Amino acid sequence: MARIGILGGTFNPPHIGHLVCAQEAHAQLGLDVVVLMPVHAPPHKPAREDPGPEHRVELCRLATATDERLSVSRLEVDRPGPSFTVDTLRALHDTAPGDELVLIVGGDMAASLPTWREPEEVLARASVAATAREGLEREQIVAALAGLEGGDRLTFFDMPRIDVSSTMIRARVASGKPVRYLVPDAVAQYVERHGLYRVAVTAG
């Protein structure tokens, strides 16, 4: 039985914030591995300037290739249509029913969990670990989940504040600015080699 962290997202592209989040979750939550789970299609909003799931999977693979604590799953990419967390957790449970699953999310995503598809089923199949800051934000998340069965399966972990986003990376690439040190070198090289994100960036 393994304790598996699931870090889902568009990863368009993956950057140092994603990797630091995965590292801190691994260290603080006693995880055996953190799995980056790129979505096929986000269920709530379209991915801006999306080069396609195959590119995003490869970017994740390159970002994690030298770190044995991290891995990448094609589970959601290989399943057509919007990527719903509850479907992913069911599939993971069917594959390895003995594993303990920990869903790694940001504070805003944790607070929105009651609006997800089958939120109580999500909480039945995984505990939730949120990166929310101390104080009011954590209290708001606890309150948001309080009405759900399994809402007490919530924990928090700390990570440094890193003001880097995929939107920022895409905007810098589109305007010809360097992205080295904001993404792993292998990611920057792949983006350059394949000409990704060279179109004008819209907000999102």
Please outline what is shown here:
This protein has one domain: HUPs (Rossmann fold), CATH 3.40.50.620. Helices cover 38% and strands 14% of the residues. The chain contains eight helices and six strands.
Write a structural description:
The chain has 8 helices and 6 strands. It is globular and about 50 Å long. The chain has helices at 16-29, 53-64, 85-95, 107-111, 119-125, 136-145, 166-174, 185-194, and strands at 3-9, 33-38, 70-72, 100-105, 127-130, 154-156. The protein has a 6-stranded parallel sheet with strand order 3-2-1-4-5-6, sandwiched between helices. The model has no long low-confidence stretch (mean pLDDT 92). It has one domain (3-160): HUPs (Rossmann fold, 3-Layer(aba) Sandwich). The protein has 204 residues and is an alpha/beta fold. The longest helix has 14 residues, at 16-29. Helix 2 (53-64) packs antiparallel against helix 8 and helix 3 packs parallel to helix 5.
Task: Write the topology of this structure.
Blueprint: E1 3-9, H1 16-29, E2 33-38, H2 53-64, E3 70-72, H3 85-95, E4 100-105, H4 107-111, H5 119-125, E5 127-130, H6 136-145, E6 154-156, H7 166-174, H8 185-194
Parallel strand pairs: 1-2, 1-4, 2-3, 4-5, 5-6
Helix pairs in contact: 2-8, 3-5
